[in-house]
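Tutorial handout. Part one gives the primary structure; part two gives the three-dimensional structure as tokens.
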Amino acid sequence: MTREIVLDTETTGLSPAEGHRVVEIGCIELNNHVPTGRHWHKYFNPERDMPDEARRIHGLDDAFLADKPLFSAEAGDFLDFVASDTLVIHNAGFDIGFLNAELERVGRPALANPVIDTVKLARDVNPGARASLDALCKLYGIDNSRRSLHGALLDSEILADVYLELIGGRQVALALGAATNAGSAGSSAVQTTSTRRRPAPLASRLSAEDRAAHDSFVSALGENSIWSKYQA
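Part two.
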């Protein structure tokens, strides 16, 4: 089983070297590229003021963050959740830089997890195309209408959908089967959801003619098409 963590942060600014801090972390767990329903999400008191430029991006202000925990109180729980598994991050250098600065501040070692940067992945898959999260949602038909403001958990959910498309499309997840809800339930920040399965699968509504027409269409796409690889 391959476990990956799709991760995003929100911060008070652009650089930890300038004293900016992490104010939100959102993580989505994937097993074999399928969301399991488990996630880790926290807001933090940054112990400093929130610049207007940052507040306009994510909507988090001083009053909202005043009673939130310090990063130091949640660092261990965060590290337990991400473990040593691969992190999937959009523009990974930004988030990793901030997370490592927070970890160094509380005397913890830097993250050593493998990292997949979906900006680089998107540029490899779609050369010349824009690689912003909004542009990728438009490219792949992913609904991001809830994203009026940036938010670490929401952006992680959206990024999980984008990542799936970048590695071969939603068909890949269907082929891998239903997700399993794994892991221990010790943290209040980790939540698990599950769905009920039908006692028996629905009968196919495709006729033999439909299947033949589809096979003919896929053949016309060429052997390098996503559908051809999926059916193989």
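Part three, for discussion. Strands lie at 3-11, 22-31, 34-43, 86-89, 115-117, 190-191. The CA atoms of residues 16 and 97 lie 7 Å apart.
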